Amino acid sequence: RKRGRRAKLRPMVDLELAYLPAVEIARRIRAREISPVEVVENSLARIAEVNPRLNAFCFVFGDEALDRARAAEALVMRGARLGPLHGVPIAIKDLTPTRGKTTTMGSRIYEHWVPERDAIVVEKLAAAGAILVGKTTTPEFAFSSFTESPLWGVTRNPWNPDRSPGGSSGGSGVAVATGCVALAEGSDMGGSVRIPAALCGVVGLKPSFGRIPFEILPSQFDSLSHFGPLARGVDDAAAFLAATQGPDERDIQTLSPQLDIALPLDADLRGRRLALSLDLGFYALDDEVAANTLAAAEALREAGAVVEEVALAWSREVCDAWIEHWGVYLAAFFGRHLDEWRDRMDPNVVKLMDAGAAMDAVSFKRIEFVRTRQWQALAPILERYDALLCPTMALPAQPVDARDDDYGRDDADGRYHGYDMTSALNFVSQCPALSVPSGFTRDGLPTGLQIVGRRYDDLGALRVGAAFERVRPWNRRRPSI
Description:
Oligomer: single chain
Number of strands: 15
Shape: globular
């Protein structure tokens, strides 16, 4: 028998601890029932188990996270005042600046960029007591509904590794769905929180525009961009929002005053009126997505809400205009790198940037005409109803080698064969949009229900999601990985 160095044994993962809700982890830590060190060690062990197979994390900060956990434990033992997320392991998307930690944005251009400051959302999560254990994968500059980048490769779906987890916060979605962390941050410019939430079977919130400070762009007057949580429960998403909401003078567009968010959320739907649009007026829809959406609507009726189908007069012009806007966004914020880096960038993001750079100012301004017509069609519905229900995605998770350009055609009946049903809602960004799991396909892939609230009514959308979670709990089902 050969003699040699004994292999280091990987710590056993406690899956029950890994899948505890964030609010429950924080409660047990405050009650001294579990230790922050125990929780973070378990998180790191789960990452080590999952990441080689799914590629959710591009950076893991094990030693620093354990140091912070020991400091958090000392505060508990001293009886110090604790934040609402004290000791809870979290992950931050690799688009979001973290002081002293490399932030690549999925691009070779930023492979060695170390920001000098935290984004406000990171700062606020740390102030709430959360412990950063790692950064999650994103496509280059968060441009895609699929998470693959020249720098970090392909990220895979925990329910079927041959499928994509969605994008652009795909790593964050996988991290939460697999129990690596209880909460993860994502950014959402066209669905990048809600898409991976739906495809990974977790909760994702695009808050009302301006609710969470978003100051990381060269422009302080962007109107599409949101930070939001990925979580395994609606109360956890609400806890993230409570900890990170503004106002903050560093972002001129942040909302004031703060929301008063009490947990657990009030989930009484008696007297609530909900509108249902299966297709947003123009989408072709997968049969199982449609069936799960209808079943979700029926569950909300059973919970006490009045749910009625409505006709929404939107058309594919909304999606086309969003893609044009997105190309201008990418060209304005990152296009300066094209001359030097074009051949080392994702060719799909280059294509979008080139289209954006070619658009004239008058045509770009006319995109607002589309947004105006869109709002004029939605506003009367939200005047009559407390929220709008629709699918999050028109299709279940697609193969990992698919691309955004594979979708977006019209069929002979004029129906739009798109993938996400989220980007249109970034054009009415003052309306919060929450994705919650609506069910599973016959192949075991999760689908999502999108709950669109009235302007700035984040609590209204969250309460509908909480009510649905209580009558159709999804937290008990976990991917087999």
